[in-house]
Amino acid sequence: MSMADARISPAPPAAPRLSVIVITKNEAARLPTCLASVAFADELIVVDSGSSDGTADLARRMGARVIVTTDWPGFGKQKQRALDAATGTWVLALDADEWLDAELASAVRGVVEGPTPVDAASGGVSGYVVGRMSAFCGQWMTAGSWYPDLGVRLFRRGSARFSDDLVHERLLLQGATGRLPGLLLHNSITSLHDGIDKMNCYSTGRAADQRARGRRGGLASAIGHGLWAFIRAYLLRQGFRDGRLGFVLAMLDAQASCTRYLKLWLDGRPQPHELPPRRR
Q: Exposed (0-12), middle (13-18) or buried (19+): which is 142, by Cβ within 10 Å?
């Protein structure tokens, strides 16, 4: 190769600095807002569970690499699939119904566009905690069990993995954490019907996770956990500051907790093939 050829050879592409990972199922209505808020990312990874509303095609048009799966292993394992596909130095984990406000977007860019981070073993920050504000039935909730809903969302790839939980998965991070300003906005439950459906679905998954860990339920524990969930959300975490919907949300929290422990008790019992004789 001549010296002239060497001078004009293109440089290898730089490794992505930020990968955004999202899992989806029929999220065509909400996904555009999510992906638009992270348009500055170098890589978008969407793992789709066989949507029928065009979610996968929409994500591709917005620049995402889409991985379609035919099974549903639970939220934890599905998010781990997305994480395994990411190649960026930093990873930002989002749900399809979440988006970054301007302050948080600026903070994320400041982290990933800054100097190369110190290795976590040498005392560097491995991940950043983000505050989340969620909407319930068309109202932003600013107190109670839903706010500020802190959690690590931005982290160095290789420093974390997702738990195997069916629902309410956890990010298992190794290393120190920092805190980012701004908010992750979350359009979670748009109607009471939607909330009850999610409560029923998630309580089943949580009961299964707890049963697998050897937990047992019962009537007394269901009542006790339900009462405690309401007291914690409405009184201790001041859910009453959100007015009437704050009360409704605290009641839904209580119902979810009570139902989970009832399912942990009743769904774990062997079911008879025949009903016992009816007492007269």
A: middle
